[in-house]
Amino acid sequence: IPVDPFDLVIFGGTGDLARRKILPGLYRRFLAGQMPEDARIIAAARSEMDEDAYRAFVAEAIAEFVEPGHRDKAQIQAFLARLSYVATDAKGSDGWDSLKALMRDGVVRAFYFSVAPSLFGALAEKLHEYGIADGDSRIVVEKPFGRDLASARALNATLAAHFNETQIYRIDHYLGKETVQNLMAVRFANSLFEPLWNAQHVDHVQITVAETVGVGGRGEYYDRAGAMRDMVQNHMMQLLCLIAMEPPYKFEPDAVRDEKLKVIRALTGVGHDEIVRGQYRGMPAREGRKAEPSYTEDVGNAHSRTESYIALKVGISNWRWQGVPFYLRTGKKLRNRISEIAITFKEPPHSIFDEDDAWRENVLAIRLQPDEGMTLTVMIKEPGPGGMRLTEMPLDMSFADWLSEDADIPDAYERLIMDVIRGNQTLFMRGDEVEAAWAWADPIIAAWEDRGERPHGYDPGSSGPEDALMLMHRDGRRWREIR
Ligand code: BG6
């Protein structure tokens, strides 16, 4: 179904995010027939460039980031015809009159701030000064949304000076992932799970986001952030909220966000023995494999104490989750790329079998990527005449196998940009949520900074520092394998 006609302005239209995600995503939505005839995309950036040069830039991005099966010459040309480019100076006056002249009345106006947060204020101001934004316009902002509570508050205040909360779309691309949205469907569209979804039946929850990549070319940003700011405060926090929140009364923006906020506010602090930070080591060249740089080499800071891995245990102080630990871990250069949420249920209250050592826990594992799906482990009898021996059987559900091959699963960004045009904020973070997440993270970060702690080293391709194992062993539990 096509969305309403729109003018979408992408500030930072020549940047990396625009090239990798925003523009290829918009092209895919165009192919899917979701862009109405008169939808237009206007890129704005500092560089002087004419329209043809910009279109060539976008054609290259499509060639690089869109699957070959979707690269149709005629369609690409038709998509490029929707694009314009205006060289614009966020801090000066260049380009703003031309931008204004391009905007049409009677269509949705959306402005994507795909630029450094230090420019958000200047852009918001200019949009008003030149009368380009109106009361219905929407702005989209990217993470990082601040680096602590104070800076997030300042950023919120800057945006609030020109826009209402209902106009501000703070992107957390994890919320646009198909399986993340499926979490809500699994929980709230089935009667099977919800009665078990509480401290009475759940032993613990593990949330893992493991990556195989290092910090790549983003060293400068990453070394100032680290895994806590880069992944935990936002993406992992959102996953935790969707798992732990109470059922909203409706699938509607503020109903959902109110419930998420309550979870964040109920999070317990994290003691210093409940957190392990790691940093990947380098690897010398081995047979047939190139040497791999260490984290400190990647970021060009030999003394860096920033973590590229973090594991922590946190609780939620409310009726539903009292006493249930949530174990979170994320890291770069780990053995495999996998994001999953695993809910481990309590053992049956009494065993009628003589199997003291049998592993009798049911686990519901929800895989976000790759191979999106769910696995529920159940205990069954081991086949054969050998008496009553128990074994574990996975009930495996792969979403990809179930959905038809040509099911159109949009990338997170595609979905979210279309939601902006539709005016649906359900999958975007509200200002108070972001602030609450920083209010939780700040004292944890301050505590390790005060202790002057160095992260533990771990080998690339491993599952993280040894000490992270202890975090769970101590509680008589174990991490799931990163495989
Ligand atoms: C980004 C982080 O927000 O998310 C990156 O800044 C991280 O460091 C990325 O690699 C992970 O996203 P995805 O979609 O690849 O899981």
Automatic annotation (TrEMBL):
One of its GO terms (molecular function) is glucose-6-phosphate dehydrogenase activity. The active site is at H235. Transmembrane segments: none annotated. Residues 9-182 form the Glucose-6-phosphate dehydrogenase NAD-binding domain. It catalyses: D-glucose 6-phosphate + NADP(+) = 6-phospho-D-glucono-1,5-lactone + NADPH + H(+). The keyword NADP applies. It is an enzyme of class 1 (oxidoreductase). Keywords: Carbohydrate metabolism, Glucose metabolism, NADP, Oxidoreductase. Substrate binds at H173, K177, E211, D230, K332. Coiled coil: none annotated. NADP(+) binds at G12, G13, T14, G15, D16, L17, A18, R19, R46, K143. Residues 184-480 form the Glucose-6-phosphate dehydrogenase C-terminal domain. One of its GO terms (biological process) is pentose-phosphate shunt, oxidative branch. Gene3D superfamilies: Dihydrodipicolinate Reductase, domain 2 (3.30.360.10), NAD(P)-binding Rossmann-like Domain (3.40.50.720). Pathway: Carbohydrate degradation; pentose phosphate pathway; D-ribulose 5-phosphate from D-glucose 6-phosphate (oxidative stage): step 1/3. GO terms for cellular component: cytosol. Its EC number is 1.1.1.49. It holds the Pfam family G6PD_C. The keyword NADP applies. Belongs to the glucose-6-phosphate dehydrogenase family. Catalyzes the oxidation of glucose 6-phosphate to 6-phosphogluconolactone. This is Glucose-6-phosphate 1-dehydrogenase. It comes from Allgaiera indica.
